[in-house]
């Protein structure tokens, strides 16, 4: 009876603790851990208002919460792709501003690509052009692949200033851009693009410079159907940083981390220099003085029948291992002219089941001790070796040295031009600034709120208890009294009963 009461008390204490415990989150807001109140409490705690973007500080900003503003701010492309079949050449992908499929913050809308397997393009002009001078370029936006992604991109393009970007209705794949940035995936090939178009200071030609891949793969954003924050920072000291969800996943120099490199080599191979016909690149050659030994027999096989093996007693030489199935019958529709003479299928001979073996006996094969293989002369150093030939170097006629590749072409607009096999790709909170602090503050008012809600929903009751206990050490004393003490009593009573005398147990 005592043990039953102790068990009941322990169970009741744990239930009361886990279902009624409250804790304060990072914002000092009290949240109950009861399952039926956590969602509503979290939604009330993290109130959302569309962030304000000061035009004097933001080159571009859009939270997409104002559908009327969106209609006047963004321009859908009416162009067609070149060298593409007419039925798919038109940019007729459908764009809309709407709530995400899984709303997190009230009235938080996003730009959604509704269609799939269609070319889609949309663009908007900056508040003022971004000129690469003495301040960094900071680009930041959210993407939520609401249906996941198997093949397609969700990157953006920062369009170059010039006559080809004056009419954004003609925005297409060949519209000049300064930077392309964002995630892309097709099958197992996952990328986070950072491409900038570099202008040759000598002849004005333009070359795309592709950033090396990050060391770690970014699989989760393509399958977890949650919002993710992408940020690119390009600095006047010719360095860059790429962050995903505030974590640095790639960084380096514009000079060294791009293919092809910004600056070409000073020297190149002479295209008119060819290897002489008598140039000997062989480091080793067969010894010309070596002769095959007289006893070297190349005809010996690598394996021979084991000469020490003998046929086991009871081996049935005259009995076949396989015999025609005596129960098989020729199919009624068998056509001799079409199918040939019918033969019953072969089956294992029942007479061999208990015998040592049946059929023609052969000794097992073993390695041939006399086998040497084909004779080859041993190798010696080549006395005529001239080394590995390489063409001579000449000055690169196209050499130049750009000491400041950060000075890229001025950005006039921002565009999204995609082909995707997934629909409902949601873009949100897209900004261009020259101050990383502004970008962090903007994220704090938008993405970070969503992340807190998602993290709260993922928390279990036990993890909430542990989090609150770690943040409030005095809670360990409460746990010790409420949980530890009843547990100690239970163990004591159990042990007392088990050590009772045989007479007591008999009673």
Automatic annotation (TrEMBL):
Protein family (similarity comment): Belongs to the calreticulin family.
Record protein name field: Putative calnexin 99a
Subcellular location: Endoplasmic reticulum membrane
Disulfide bonds, paired cysteine numbers: 151-186
GO biological process per UniProt: ERAD pathway; protein folding
Function: Calcium-binding protein that interacts with newly synthesized monoglucosylated glycoproteins in the endoplasmic reticulum. It may act in assisting protein assembly and/or in the retention within the ER of unassembled protein subunits. It seems to play a major role in the quality control apparatus of the ER by the retention of incorrectly folded proteins. Required for embryogenesis and larval development under heat and ER stress conditions. May be important for germ cell development. Involved in neuronal necrotic cell death.
Amino acid composition bias (Basic and acidic residues), ranges on this chain: 266-295
GO MF entries: calcium ion binding; unfolded protein binding
Residue ranges crossing the lipid bilayer per the database entry: 474-495
Main location group: endoplasmic reticulum
Keyword Chaperone among record annotations: yes
Keyword Transmembrane recorded: yes
Signal sequence, renumbered to the chain: 1-24
InterPro entries documented for this protein: Calret/calnex, Calret/calnex_CS, Calreticulin/calnexin_P_dom_sf, ConA-like_dom_sf
Keywords for this protein: Chaperone, Disulfide bond, Endoplasmic reticulum, Membrane, Signal, Transmembrane, Transmembrane helix
Region described as Disordered: spans on this chain: 255-314
Membrane topology, as annotated: Single-pass type I membrane protein
GO cellular component: endoplasmic reticulum membrane
């Amino acid at each position: 009876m005592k043990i039953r009461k102790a068990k009941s008390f322990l169970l009741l204490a744990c239930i009361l603790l886990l279902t009624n415990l409250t804790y304060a989150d990072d914002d000092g807001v009290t949240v109950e851990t009861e399952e039926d109140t956590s969602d509503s409490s979290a939604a009330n705690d993290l109130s959302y208002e569309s962030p304000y973007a000061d035009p004097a500080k933001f080159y571009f900003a859009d939270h997409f919460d104002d559908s009327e503003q969106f209609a006047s701010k963004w321009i859908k492309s009416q162009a067609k792709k070149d060298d593409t079949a007419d039925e798919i050449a038109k940019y007729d992908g459908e764009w809309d501003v709407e709530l995400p499929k899984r709303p997190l913050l009230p009235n938080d809308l996003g730009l959604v690509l509704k269609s799939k397997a269609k070319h889609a393009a949309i663009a908007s002009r900056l508040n003022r052009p971004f000129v690469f001078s003495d301040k960094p370029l900071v680009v930041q936006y959210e993407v939520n692949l609401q249906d996941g992604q198997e093949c397609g991109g969700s990157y953006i393009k920062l369009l170059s200033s010039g006559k080809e970007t004056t009419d954004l209705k003609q925005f297409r794949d060949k519209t000049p851009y300064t930077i392309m940035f964002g995630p892309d995936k097709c099958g197992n090939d996952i990328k986070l693009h950072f491409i900038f178009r570099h202008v040759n200071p000598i002849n004005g030609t333009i070359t795309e410079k592709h950033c090396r891949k990050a060391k770690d793969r970014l699989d989760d954003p393509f399958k977890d159907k949650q919002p993710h924050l992408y940020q690119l920072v390009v600095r006047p000291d010719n360095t860059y940083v790429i962050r995903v969800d505030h974590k640095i996943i790639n960084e380096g120099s514009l000079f060294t981390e791009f293919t092809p490199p910004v600056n070409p080599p000073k020297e190149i191979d002479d295209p008119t220099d060819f290897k002489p016909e008598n140039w000997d690149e062989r480091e080793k050659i067969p010894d010309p003085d070596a002769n095959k030994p007289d006893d070297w027999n190349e005809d010996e096989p690598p394996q021979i029948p084991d000469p020490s093996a003998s046929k086991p007693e009871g081996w049935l030489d005259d009995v076949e291992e396989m015999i025609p199935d005596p129960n098989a019958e020729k199919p009624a529709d068998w056509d001799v002219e079409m199918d040939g003479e019918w033969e019953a299928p072969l089956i294992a001979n029942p007479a061999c089941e208990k015998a040592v073996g049946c059929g023609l006996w052969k000794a097992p094969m073993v390695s041939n001790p006399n086998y040497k293989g084909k004779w080859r002369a041993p190798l010696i150093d080549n006395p005529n070796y001239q080394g590995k030939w390489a063409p001579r170097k000449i000055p690169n006629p196209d050499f130049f040295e750009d000491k400041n590749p950060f000075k890229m072409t001025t950005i006039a607009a921002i565009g999204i031009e995609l082909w995707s096999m997934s629909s409902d790709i949601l873009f949100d909170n897209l900004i261009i600034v020259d101050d990383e602090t502004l970008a962090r503050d903007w994220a704090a008012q938008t993405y970070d709120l969503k992340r807190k809600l998602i993290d709260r929903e993922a928390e279990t009751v036990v993890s909430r208890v542990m989090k609150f206990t770690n943040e409030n050490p005095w809670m360990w004393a409460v746990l010790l009294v409420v949980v530890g003490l009843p547990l100690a009593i239970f163990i004591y009573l159990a042990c007392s009963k088990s050590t009772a005398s045989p007479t007591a147990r008999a009673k």
